[in-house]
Amino acid sequence: MNRMKSILKWAVPCLALTLTIAFARLYGQATASEQKVRPIGVVTAIQPQQLTLRTDAGPSLTVNLPEGISVLQVPPGAKSLKQAAKIAVSDISIGDRILIIGPVSSDEKSITAKSVIVMSKTALEIAREAERLQWEKNGIAGVVKSVDPATKEITLAVPNPQPTPGDPTHSVIVTLAPNASMLRYAPDSVKFSDAQPGTIDQIHVGDQARALGTKSADGTHFTAEKIVSGTFRNIGATVISTDAAQDTITVKDLATGKPLLVRINADSRLHELTPQVANTIAMFNAGPSKNAGPDHQGTGQGGETPRRTGFEGHGRPGSGQQGSGMPGAQSGNFEQMLQHMPPLTLSTLKPGEPLIVVSTEGAKPDQVTAIAVLSGVEPILRARPKGSKEVALGPWNMSVGGGGGSTSGTGGTGETGP
User: Fold this and answer.
1) Domain-by-domain residue ranges, the chain?
2) In this predicted model, what pLDDT tens digit does every residue of 171-195 receive, in sequence order?
3) CA 145 – CA 147 distance, rounded (Å)
4) CATH number, span 232-382
5) What's the CA angle centered on 364, arms 238 and 144, to 5 degrees?
6) CA distance 185 to 232
7) How far apart are CA 251 and CA 258, in angstroms?
8) Pick from 39, 59, 164, 179: CA 20 to 30 A from residue 304's CA?
9) Could you tell me which of 401, 403, 384, 404 has the C-alpha nearest to residue 393?
10) How many CB atoms lie within 10 A of CB 285?
11) Which residues contact 268 (CB under 8 A, 6 or more apart)?
């Protein structure tokens, strides 16, 4: 019981934002270091005295449930086991999130549970929706312009409600509240479960930050109670080859001229931009011009260096239909824009085809995991201002969750972050 109290002390207080991370960290503190598989995740199947757990890391575990095992259900927001309720094994349902205490087998394919901590799927969905609304109402996101660790201030370039070429953002000074919670996305991942506790010293100019807190009356300052940040890239590239069996694309990075391995996973989005969208993004990237228009191609050469992208804005679905008339433009919601684009498959990619690969910063310089792979991007690669080595996505910014949600930018405490 004391062991579980220690786990719950960390796992539950900020559940609506950090449930997955807290469980993962706590489990690592409470078990032997040689145990590589962390039995934390979602129930996918249930049999008598046994269930299947899809771990946050990906692999599934068979969980053996001996007679008389202790099962505790805790509600989102609980701060101690005083709010936990003892339930029967039969009360566990598919979709519930669970933490298993017990030894993992030597082949790391099964675990015999000594105790189970459960958070029900229904309760979590309610908590996630409440959190989504909280981030929508009291959240802010943008590109980091400056960082001052001494004053604990971060200046963000925040998307304007209706961005236009030459006027896409405005500055907001974010001040960290005392005891503010800080998280940092891991290399090669936008899963919130992979994020780690961070510090202001890890945040750099060009990074992305999303914060929850209170905005000043004039909108120029923001006090952050929670903040998550990360380094993201837009990579201009051309296809060298594809491997559908391995879900990889080998590309030539136009900035370096070197090969880059792009890994595709279940969360990666592959889309072909329509000419209208590509040309509109190109217009934004080229900046204000008397000749700029929907078909403006801009100038410049194709060699783009990776550029960190922004988070999605705060408009509700459908609000992007105003302003530029393009899906997602007003809210800056990258995912909303992609929902209107034709899907792309690896089999259709041809050698030499231009792409933009959106990713987090990779752990290895020659490999990245794609958040999105976009084709039909020739106008965007041509439209950067002369001398610039940046690839930008105009009024649309990379959405990596709203308060711990999915890549849709409007989810709750799912696998990807706010």
Assistant:
1) 2-119, 130-230, 232-382
2) 999 999 999 999 998 877 766 667 7
3) 7
4) 2.40.50.140
5) 85
6) 10
7) 8
8) 164
9) 384
10) 24
11) 369, 370, 371, 372, 373
Question: Could you tell me if 381 and 317 are in contact, meaning their C-beta atoms sit under 8 angstroms apart?
Answer: no
Q: List the beta strands (DSSP E) in 259-379.
A: 259-263, 269-272, 354-360, 367-375
Give the span between the Cα atoms of 416 and 414, in whole angstroms: 6
> Tokens representing 194?
């992979």
> Per residue, what are the HEC states of 1-30?
CHHHHHHHHHHCCCHHHHHHHHHHHHHHHH
The SS3 call for residue 417 is coil
Q: Which CATH architecture has domain 130-230?
A: Beta Barrel (2.40)
Copy the structure tokens of residue 361.
């910063």
Cα–Cα distance for residue pair 394/300, rounded to 1 Å: 16
Give the separation between CA 409 and CA 313, rounded to whole angstroms: 9
Distance CA 307, CA 286 (A): 15
Cβ atoms 181, 227 nearer than 8 A: yes
pLDDT tens string for the chain (418 positions)? 444 444 333 333 333 334 444 444 444 434 444 455 678 889 999 999 999 998 876 688 999 999 999 999 988 877 777 788 999 999 999 999 999 999 999 888 999 999 999 999 999 899 888 888 888 899 998 889 999 999 999 999 888 877 666 677 899 999 999 999 999 988 777 666 677 899 999 999 988 888 999 999 999 999 999 998 988 888 999 999 999 989 999 999 988 899 999 999 877 889 999 998 888 888 776 665 544 444 433 333 444 333 333 323 323 233 333 333 333 344 445 666 777 899 999 999 999 999 999 888 777 889 998 888 999 999 988 886 666 666 776 545 444 443 333 333 322 333 333 4
Q: Give DSSP secondary structure letters for 335-369.
A: HHHHTTSPB--GGG--TT-EEEEEEEPPSSTTEEE
Grouping H, G, I as helix, E, B as strand and the rest as coil, residue 282 is helix
Query: What would the two tokens of residue 200 be?
Result: 């202001």
Q: In whole angstroms, what is the distance from residue 368 CA to residue 359 CA?
A: 7
Question: Is residue 121 helix, strand or coil?
Answer: helix
Name the one residue in this structure whose structure tokens are 């991370």: 21
| Residue 169, amino acid | T
Per-residue pLDDT, 285: 67
Among the four given CATH numbers 3.60.150.10, 3.90.580.10, 2.40.50.140, 3.30.70.2190, the one describing domain 2-119: 2.40.50.140
